[in-house]
Amino acid sequence: MSRKQIMMAIGTVVLILAIAIIIGSESYFNHQAIMNASDQCYDKGGSPEVVKSFLGMDYSFSCDM
Fold first, then answer.
1. What is the number of H-type helices and E-type strands within the chain?
2. How many Å apart are CA 21 and CA 41, to the nearest integer?
3. Is residue 48 helix, strand or coil?
């Protein structure tokens, strides 16, 4: 392999890892927000209803009292 091909391969791997980290971080923080909102809903005597999309990238939350 030439030096250029090696650099392209390394760049591709770094890009894929960066995208995975960004997706994982967003999913984690969305999960934390859902858990916090659910706890607050339970504290008020409600029942949380959460609908999440694939990988938790988007969600809908409501607290039924």
1. 1, 2
2. 30
3. strand
pLDDT of residue 56: 65
> Could you identify the residue written with the tokens 């967003």?
26
Sign of the torsion angle spanned by Cα atoms 7, 9, 15, 18: negative
The closest of 32, 31, 39 to 55, measured between CA atoms, is 31
In the numeric block, which tokens belong to residue 11?
């760049």
At residue 1, what is the residue type? Answer: M
The torsion angles phi and psi of 2, rounded to 5 degrees, stand at: -85, 165
Give the global pTM.
0.74
Question: Is 48 within 8 Å of 42 (Cβ atoms)?
Answer: yes
Task: Render pLDDT for 32-65 as a digit per residue (tens, 0 to 9).
Answer: 999 999 999 999 999 999 998 876 678 899 999 8
